[in-house]
Each structure stands twice: as structure tokens, then as C-alpha cells.
Amino acid sequence: MKKKSSLLGRLDVKAFTLIELLVVVLIIGILAAVALPQYQLAVGKARLANLISMAVSTVQAEERFFLANGAYTNQWDELDISFPGTISNSDILTLSDGVVLKLITKESYQPDAIIATDPRLPGVILFFGTINTSYNNWANARACYAAQDNYQANLFCQYATHKKNHSGTGLVFDTSCNIYWF
Question: pTM of this prediction?
């Protein structure tokens, strides 16, 4: 008798079984579950570094303005830096990516501090006091405020400052927060 020939009739044909495919998919899923949080943390750290850079640049521009004019300004258009964004009020600058920089005036007509927030970093507020502020507690103060109930915000502030937190009510949060001093 002659054997019928078919493509699948050969015993040497190799193929993946369903179990092998499921194991591969499971391994890829586990790797993705481990890698995704690390990726999100790296992206958050990069956003925080960018936010710190913008706040420091603003403080430095205010100090240059002070040296040239003998006073600080609460007008964004008088500073020698430019960020792409829209100015709502004279003291609030909203950038195209949602970042908000605000000049804070406490007891004088001059800004005493710069506050920076990024909506992609919920619960994080950067605070940078100017050097010659009229409010003594803010002079040259640098802090990252994190909402107490936000684990990621606290992680980002700890990363930025490399310090442990100090609990309390902050100057920029209405509720309790963790304060990380630079």
C-alpha cells in the first residue's frame, strides 16, 4: 500500500504548541509589568528635572533683574528669559505643556518666590524663594512639596532633593504635606 502524502503527515514538521506560546506571552507580560513602572518613574524624574531647571532659570532671571534695576519684577515680560506660553495675569505663566510658573508676592510688591507645578506630576509643587525677599523665612529657600497621600509625589521630591521629608503644613499647600528641602 502506498502512503498518502500530505504536508502535515510528516513527523519532522516543527511547530509551537499552545502551551509554549502561552508561556512566552506570560514571560513578556511579567517583563512589561516590571519595566513599565520603572519607565514611568524615569519619565517623571525627567519632567521634575525640567521643572526644576525652569524654576532655577526664573530665579536667576529675577536676580539679574534685581542687580540691574535694584528691585525685583512681577512682570514676566520684563525678565530676560522667555518660555513658550501664555501669561494670565502678570504673575502667572502657563506653558504649552501645562506647566505653570507663578511669581508669589507675600509682603511687598516684589515677588518673594517662584512656584512651579506640572499637571503631569500631581501632588508636586516646587518652591524657590528669591534671595532678597521681604519675607525672611523665604530668603533663598528651595523646597519640593509633596502631598502626604501621594506616594509618587513623595518619591519624586525625595529623588530631587536626596533628603528625607519634614511633615507639616506648607506655605503652598492648604493641607498637610511633606516638605523636602534642597
Answer: 0.73
How far is 154 from 36, CA to CA, in rounded Å?
19
Asked if the structure places residue 22 within a domain, the reply is yes
Host domain of residue 84: 18-181
State the amino acid at position 17 in one-letter form.
T
What is the b/e burial string over 10-33, where b = at least 16 CB atoms within 10 angstroms of the residue's CB? Answer: eeeeeeeeeeeeeeeeeeeeeeee
CA gyration radius, the chain: 27
Alpha-carbon span 130 to 63, nearest angstrom: 8
Per-residue model confidence as pLDDT tens digits over 119-178: 999 988 888 876 555 555 556 778 888 888 888 888 888 888 877 766 655 555 555 677
Are residues 109 and 98 in contact, defined by beta-carbon separation less than 8 angstroms? no
Asked whether residue 1 is assigned to any structural domain, the reply reads no
